[in-house]
Structure formats: C-alpha cells, structure tokens
Amino acid sequence: MTAALAILAAGAALRAGTDKVTADLGGSPVLLWSLAAGEASGAFDEIVVVAPPSRVAATQQLVGRRARVVAGGTTRTASSWAALDATPDAEVLAIHDAARPFAPPSLFSRLVAVAREAGSAVAGLPVADTVRRANEIGEAGGEVDREGLWSAQTPQVFRRDVLLRARAAAGDRSYTDDAAAVTAAGIPVTMVPGERRNLKITTIEDLAYARELVDCGMAAIAAVGVR
Question: How far apart are CA 193 and CA 179, in angstroms?
Fold first, then answer.
C-alpha cells in the first residue's frame, strides 16, 4: 500500500502569539523538524505540507523539494480534507501536526504498519494524572474515572477508504482531530502508544520548553538528506 504523510501547518497560532511552525528551534524552523522525522521514517512515498493559502509560496520555499505544499482550509478538519484531495494515489494517509516537532521516525513507521492492517492508528498516551471536573470559577467536583482514557497525539494514520467514509459523514462539521471525525462516522479507531516527548507547541511557554530540551541535548532533529 502506498503511503503519504500530510503535515498540517495551516493554523493561526493565536495562543502561541507567533507563527509557531516557522519559529526557530535549534537552528531550524519547527516545521522542518516534523518534516525531517517523516522523511527519516522511510514510511512514505510522498509528503505534503498543508499551509495557509497566503503562505503556500513561502512555505514551499522553506521546504524546497522535500515536500509539496498545498493550501489548507479555515479549520483543522478542512485542512485534513485538503490533504486527502492532494494525495489521490495514497492508500494510507498519515496526518501530523507541524507543531509536534519531537515525534520520532519510529513512531511514524509503527503507526503506518498498524493502519495498513487495522484501518487506523492513532498515537496517544493513557491518562496517568488524576482527572477532576471543576466549574467555571474553578471549584473542583468529583474525580473522573481515567480507566480507558487516552490523551491523543499525532501522527494519526488511516487507510484512504476510512477517511473517505468519515468525510462523507462529516459534511461541513469540524472536529478537534481526525480520530474524532472517524469515530463520529461510527468507525472504530485503534489507539497505539505514542511518546512522552511528542509534545505539542501550543503556547509561547511550550516553545520555550522545547528550546530548553534542544539546548540541553534531550532532543535532536532527525538526520536526513535533502531531496
């Protein structure tokens, strides 16, 4: 089965206060960390980057010949469907947030292998912390049973037929991630243990923490050749 990787980089980055996917991380833009990990996995026949329509040319200049850049939509879900349209020959599509620069190459290849067999493979971690509900002013209520709860990550990998069914069922609705769109269509999703280091850069504090990890040698960009 042919496999493609779509790196989503079309978000507005409002909480980060800066363009987080082009922010410097150890001498390279955050986006290139995700791209390098996907390349190093050896799991993909094609890589596309989904960028804001106004930044397609600039993003293509940034990634060079290593990936093809396509315009995304106004929501995360719309950008995923744009990636699906842009990779018509891919029988398996992996969707990864550009803002998760520390996903290791091995995670991509593991998920692709599972998705080929099961139809889906979503990286995540079982919830380990105590989960407690609180009201709008912060008054805590009872604990939430964390048995069976997972914190979802990306990559999220699906066979093409699964995504097409999810898209048909979704209509114009938007979801927080692709697994939510698939489960909303009544299709089961397979959770696969992810990585603790696969953090998402959402805020400026997250970016500062990621830089600390790089500076102290706890994270390094995957070594790949330029295509």
Answer: 15
